[in-house]
Amino acid sequence: MSVIGRRGLHYLHTLKASNVPADLIQKGQDRVIDASLTLIRERVKLKGELLRALGGAKATASLLGVPLGHNSSFLQGPAFAPPRIREAIWCGSTNSATEEGKELKDPRVLTDVGDVPVQEIRDCGVDDDRLMNVIGESVKLVMEEDPLRPLVLGGDHSISFPVVRAVSEKLGGPVDILHLDAHPDIYHAFEGNIYSHASSFARIMEGGYARRLLQVGIRSITSEGREQGKRFGVEQYEMRTFSRDRHLLENLKLGEGVKGVYISVDVDCLDPAFAPGVSHIEPGGLSFRDVINILHNLQGDVVAADVVEFNPQRDTVDGMTAMVAAKLVRELTAKISR
């Protein structure tokens, strides 16, 4: 059996081995998916109604957790990240204001609609084709409730494909993407897995969901990564030339002529001195202030974002990387909300 198969749907295999009728399995899976989407739908609806009653918000960042780790090529710890990030956001060691002065305790700035129940869905034997659709539908449910905009907590980087696809489909056209990462994640199908966290941006570009893709912080890239970048017209900014590119990257203007800007932050874009709690440690990365300067100075309408690849199982005892991921979420919240 392949690596993907060994990681996969043990419960479904057991049922098939027991000669359980396929239509019975299918109906059961459908009920679980419907229940999962109903929970997200009702939470989103409630938050939207409350915000509209409060008034005064044109855009509100809405946390949506996607605790998925099985598409990682190395460690699956990012599946445990969403609750750790939430805990760090509200940690009493710091206040609830962003650097630009927005108050996170104001529900018009930040709200939370919970998690997509990824493991519960997979436990019912649902494959990745359907799981990616559930993630995308959950994102669309958030976007249907004005003024909510999705700020997604991963999870490994495979989640960016269904999220970006959903954002693009819901808005009716492509977006510009700012992608901060040590890796380009643009393999055609890493280890034979089209949904690998190392292949998410290949799926995004193939689908036409992005007009421009800017990849910043790259320092681990193969010949395939460069070839795929050229194939899709990706603007790849490697760390070896960051000092030369800094001024450009700290003065980006994106989203004009498309449906807005999507920001995807892989925590390993940071040098491991700042964020050791990641699966793929790559020295020579961005400083935290480098990332914040890029985000603060970006001009464009940020319609959605994600923070991915924080691995709590590799974090320091005091949760340093959790606090870093939380700070990224806080500053992205400030960028989205208005």
TrEMBL record:
<comment type="pathway">
    <text>Nitrogen metabolism; urea cycle; L-ornithine and urea from L-arginine: step 1/1.</text>
</comment>
<dbReference type="InterPro" id="IPR020855">
    <property type="entry name" value="Ureohydrolase_Mn_BS"/>
</dbReference>
<dbReference type="GO" id="GO:0033389">
    <property type="term" value="P:putrescine biosynthetic process from arginine, via agmatine"/>
</dbReference>
<feature type="binding site">
    <location>
        <position position="266"/>
    </location>
    <ligand>
        <name>Mn(2+)</name>
    </ligand>
</feature>
<keyword id="KW-0479">Metal-binding</keyword>
<comment type="similarity">
    <text>Belongs to the arginase family. Agmatinase subfamily.</text>
</comment>
<keyword id="KW-0056">Arginine metabolism</keyword>
<feature type="binding site">
    <location>
        <position position="183"/>
    </location>
    <ligand>
        <name>Mn(2+)</name>
    </ligand>
</feature>
<feature type="binding site">
    <location>
        <position position="157"/>
    </location>
    <ligand>
        <name>Mn(2+)</name>
    </ligand>
</feature>
<comment type="pathway">
    <text>Amine and polyamine biosynthesis; putrescine biosynthesis via agmatine pathway; putrescine from agmatine: step 1/1.</text>
</comment>
<feature type="binding site">
    <location>
        <position position="185"/>
    </location>
    <ligand>
        <name>Mn(2+)</name>
    </ligand>
</feature>
<dbReference type="GO" id="GO:0046872">
    <property type="term" value="F:metal ion binding"/>
</dbReference>
<protein>
    <submittedName>
        <fullName>Arginase 1, mitochondrial</fullName>
    </submittedName>
</protein>
<keyword id="KW-0464">Manganese</keyword>
<dbReference type="InterPro" id="IPR023696">
    <property type="entry name" value="Ureohydrolase_dom_sf"/>
</dbReference>
<dbReference type="InterPro" id="IPR006035">
    <property type="entry name" value="Ureohydrolase"/>
</dbReference>
<feature type="binding site">
    <location>
        <position position="268"/>
    </location>
    <ligand>
        <name>Mn(2+)</name>
    </ligand>
</feature>
<keyword id="KW-0661">Putrescine biosynthesis</keyword>
<dbReference type="GO" id="GO:0004053">
    <property type="term" value="F:arginase activity"/>
</dbReference>
<feature type="binding site">
    <location>
        <position position="181"/>
    </location>
    <ligand>
        <name>Mn(2+)</name>
    </ligand>
</feature>
<keyword id="KW-0378">Hydrolase</keyword>
<comment type="function">
    <text>Catalyzes the hydrolysis of L-arginine to urea and L-ornithine. The latter can be utilized in the urea cycle or as a precursor for the synthesis of both polyamines and proline. Possesses agmatinase activity. Catalyzes the formation of putrescine from agmatine.</text>
</comment>
<dbReference type="GO" id="GO:0008783">
    <property type="term" value="F:agmatinase activity"/>
</dbReference>
<dbReference type="Pfam" id="PF00491">
    <property type="entry name" value="Arginase"/>
</dbReference>
